[in-house]
Amino acid sequence: MIELPDPGSVRRVADWIELNVSVNKERLSKAEVSSSVDRITGAEPAEWFISDIWRELEYRHGLYSEPTFEVAERTIEPRPDVEPAVEYLACLLLSLFGVRGVTRDPGKLFERIARKAVERYLRGNAIVFGWPAPSPSDSEPESEESQIKRKIKKLAEDLGERFIESPPPRFNDRGVDVIGWIPFHDGRPSQLVLLLQCYAGQDWKGKLPVPLESWYQYIHWAFNPVRGFAVPRVLPARDWHEASTDKGLLFDRPRIVNLLPRDRHDPVLTDELTVWVTEQLAELEA
Asked: Model confidence over 6-23: pLDDT tens digits?
């Protein structure tokens, strides 16, 4: 069984249950969860704490279009008819343990997962914009100033919008990791554009939203873009409205997983995620 990283948090324990049930395909009872918390903290958890975990899992069960688990009165049961998608497992690992691992950049992997979700949601186009920017293969290495200028000019060109200027190099991607848009057939500007920030770390509340006012200085938008925020965790219901108001259109784990198709829609990303998830699980279960 994977070790429980934070026995004092209802949502982190719920993540841990989701991960264990999905990976091991075995039920977990209230008694087993209580025992795991007791083993780490040295104190048996209160009954209300375990009840809150079950309520949280019931809430999540209703959010997923194809949940990998069923919530019974005293157990969480794996669903044998639902194979957990590797994107779902990757999001669970990021939610529980944050960005970790040396062979791949899990934060970048999450950006690519979010890009797919945005593309499916908008039924339009989406690109990963986040820093660093790869230089053209046939060119000399670029300065940071040249990289960000090239990226924003290319973005304006692709969207049919008018480039104004690039931000100072210290701002890198200026808070934007994924850009999605719904183009019209005529190729003219005035279209829906989403500037999405992805955050795979733990302190999501402290992450500043996309600075739209700054982006108005870089591109002359015919129709101003909207901002969004993507995280691999389940955002609490009590924080949903405030997070939406502050950070824009929200993509949390249920929304992302629900949007992704069940087939190998991106074999390269699927393979990279599979390797990273396998490495992480092997390390956690060692």
From this structure: 999 999 999 999 999 999
